[in-house]
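Translate sequence into structure tokens.
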Amino acid sequence: NFNHSTWLTFMKNRLEVARDLLSEDGVIFVQCDDNEQAYLKVLMDEIFGQVNFAANFIWNHRKSSQNDVDVSLSHNYTLTFAKNRQTFKLNPLEIDNTKFSNPDNDVRGNWIADPFDAPNVRENLSYEIINPNTNKSHYPPAGRHWRMSKEKYERALNDNRIIFGKAGKTKPQYKRFENEAREKGVNSFTIWDFVDTATKGTKELMKLFNGKKFATPKPEKLLQRIIHIATKKGDLVLDYHLGSGTTCAVAHKMGRQYIGIEQMDYIEDIAVKRMQKVIGTTVKKDGELLDSVDFDNGGISKAVDWQGGGEFIYFELDKYNQSFIDKIAKADEKSIVSLYNEIIDKAFLNYDVESEKLMQEKAGFKALSLGEQQEFLISILNKNQLYKNLSEIDDKDLAVDEKTKHLNKNFYEQ
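Result follows.
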């Protein structure tokens, strides 16, 4: 339908820009639900290339049942594409050390028993193994092979790296020690049911803002998982639908660089204030020091031993026609008439609008209701000129001050 088509166009335009912004070893994560997942996957195959598909992670974001529907929706999708799959590899996860133990008091420490067989048949790795405790003969299961040569097996057996089950009576297993496992890590699974729920994300934000709610904030643990498997310290993370600011908050705590973009007005009340709470030290605004704030100790703070600190820079787009739209929204019956003159004189109007004709029809404008006047003024403004373009920063009509010019020059050249 029309709404569906419009959404795909909306996504296509932004994903094409996102692809161009990715570094050669970069990766993008896009979250959606069942309504759009199949269509979005096809779209991303087209934009990023099917060969660069990395994974479709399924996040179990709801633990409770929805009683108002016959099928309770409990998961979202996170489509993941690399800029170049051949050069990109997801980082392994940290091991679960609770699975390791040392029942035989091995001096090398805690270990876990791994299977000694591996997929596929390899004749040179399909030799006989005799259980020394039972004298029973073992061969690899059907369709599998032993994970090492017989010579290496003998060395591992003599090194006490081979066990035959807890009671010593089964097929061979291989000891993997905790320190070895920690270095290698664990590969990601596609189903994530242990990275907190959407409700957890809401509670984290409500705690941070004394009960104030925000629609569908992501829990910090979810973003921690994504940032962990995709980046290392110092890497740059971009979220161009910043929302409540979870991505930037987690990236900051994890020692990553970050850029967050949000077009809604609540960015000042939510994301900016959230980052101030994350930093927790004196924050500068207009060159003045504000009072210290307690640093955020919620979310992943304890897991990463977050102690506050750091800084961030917050920019707003310099308004052009958007400033007139803001004035229109606040205007009353008296001020809107003078605003009519100001817009004709200073605003960037649509190309089919004639300024002289508007001045001649001023009496007709006055006869309209306030709502009609507001609607009319917004309709004649060129929506492609809501904000000042960098390429026109030296245009005298835009009245950009020297401080702003200098700031933009430094920002875009770095």
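Note: Residues 321-413 form one domain.
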